[in-house]
Amino acid sequence: MHVPDGMINLPVSAAAGVVAAGAVAVSLRGARRELGSGPLAEGHGAERTAPLAGLVAAFVFAVQMLNFPVAAGTSGHLLGGALAAILVGPCTGVLCIAVVLLMQGILFADGGLTALGVNITVMGVVTVIVSYGIFRGLLRILPRGRRSVTVSAFAAALVSVPAAAAAFTLLYAIGGTTHIPVGKVLTAMVGVHVLIGIGEAAITALTVGAVIAVRPDLVHGARGLAAPLKLRVGGELVDAPAPAPVAAATSRSPRGLLAAGLGTALLLAGVVSFYASASPDGLEKVAADKGIDRKVEEHAAAGSPLADYGVKDISNTRLSGGLAGMIGVGATVVVGSGIFYVVHRRRTPANAPVADGRS
Fold first, then answer.
1. d(Cα 82, Cα 90) in Å, to the nearest integer?
2. According to the model, what pLDDT value does residue 4 have?
3. Which of 6, 48, 130, 210 has the greatest count of CB atoms below 10 A from its CB?
4. Which fold has domain 10-222+253-345?
């Protein structure tokens, strides 16, 4: 659902840019808390939490390259807002999607540069707010446990995609550069993105479930949800006393998970992406069918060596696309981790007193 330049007029694109910038500013403050909380961060700092958030951004980038067929002549891909919000928190999730969209726009000419604010607002802010709100609401009413986290993730991701499609339609209604009845655009956009949402929900639930299975302590949305142990005392079930914190449990290095996640992202972007559907995605298909792309402009980065997810001057399509995907994953994880490292480090003032461990 990458909106190109020229589909939404400049005033509305600028207004969306202001909204996106405000959301990123708020998210920067919130991410400091999210990156500095939980067992992963306790006593370890940004050298562990920042790479995890950077990896989530890189994984979203990789999976977005895997377009899957959803209807005749139409494909869809992960938006990623729900996945990022559940894994690393809503504020950090907004930043993850913003980093992905920035990398795609600058390096790969995917998503207009003047429409960057539109894309961040629609694909990052709206998806995160809607999905995380639904996710937390469902966790309040479902039984406490890992299965409920996975089910809630599925439902949250499913709804977030048509919600983003509706948000785009609203922006088109206000600032579209073509004059197509909004009702037709809304029906087409929401209709096809409900189908895409099913794929998004499946990917999100499978990924969240896989991480929970090996390291539930690393899933932001699953913190504190473990069901208390029950003991039978005098014929009645009572909560068992909470166990003392185990240092080893909170100090386990996430290095293995990070390596596996990065390897998976590189494999998806570098190899599996070659087999992705070549059909236009939901927005491209609706734009072509309804004529809302008549005034789309050429991307400012169309001459980039990596434009259209291929390496310039490499004629072999599979090699070109694979290298471009791997470069994108690498760039995203480096830029994302660097940003999250700085965000985390700024959480504590440089001149703050440090305990020396003496009592």
1. 8
2. 97
3. 130
4. Arp2/3 complex 21 kDa subunit ARPC3 (1.10.1760)
